[in-house]
C-alpha cells in the first residue's frame, strides 16, 4: 500500500506594501492631475444628457434620460467600488460595514436599471447623493484623502444638477 504524499506547509503570505507613490497620493492635499482631468471628463456624459434634454425631439429627450440615468447608475456603482478597493488596500479599515456599503450601490443600481429611465432619474439622484453623504462621513474619519472629497464635491454637484435638469425638461417645466 502506497502512502499518500506528504503535504508541505506553504510559506507565510507576505502582504505587499503600498507603493510609495500611492502613499504620497493618499496623504497629498493636492489633487493628482490625472484624477482631476479624468474626474471632470467623467461628467461630460451628464452634461451632454442635460443639454440633449432641451431638444424638441422626443426621441432625443428620451435618449438623454436614458443616458443620464444609466450613466448615473454606473457612477454610483463606481463610487461604491471605491470603498471595496480601499478596504482591500487598507486592511485596518476593512470593516464589515465598509464592505457591505461598497456593494449596496450595485444592488440598488440593478433595481434602478429595471425601471424606465424617466421614472428612475429621482432614484439615481438619491443614489449619487447617498454616495456623497457616505463619502463625507468616511472622509471625516481620515480614510479618504482630502483632495478626493474636494474633487467629489464639484463632480457630484454637476452630476446631480444635470440629472435635475433632465427631470424638469422631461416633465415639461
Structural account:
By secondary structure, the protein is mainly α. It has one domain (46-171). Helix content is 73%, strand content 0%. It has seven helices and no strands. α3 packs parallel to α7 (146-171) and α4 runs antiparallel to α7 (146-171). The chain is extended. The termini are far apart.
Give the topology string: H per helix, E per strand.
HHHHHHH
Q: What proportion of the residues is helical, as a percent range?
A: over 70%
* Rg calculated over all Cα atoms: 21 Å
Total domain modules:
1
| Number of helices, where a helix is a run of at least 4 consecutive DSSP H or I residues | 7
Category by helix and strand content: mainly alpha
Shape: extended
Number of strands: 0
Q: Low-confidence runs (pLDDT<50, min 5 residues)?
A: none
Give the structure's gist in a few sentences:
The protein is an all-alpha fold and 173 residues long. Helices cover 73% and strands 0% of the residues.
Write the layout of secondary structure elements.
Elements: H1 20-27, H2 33-41, H3 44-52, H4 58-89, H5 96-113, H6 117-140, H7 146-171
What attributes characterize this protein structure?
single chain; 173 residues; mainly alpha; 73% helix; extended
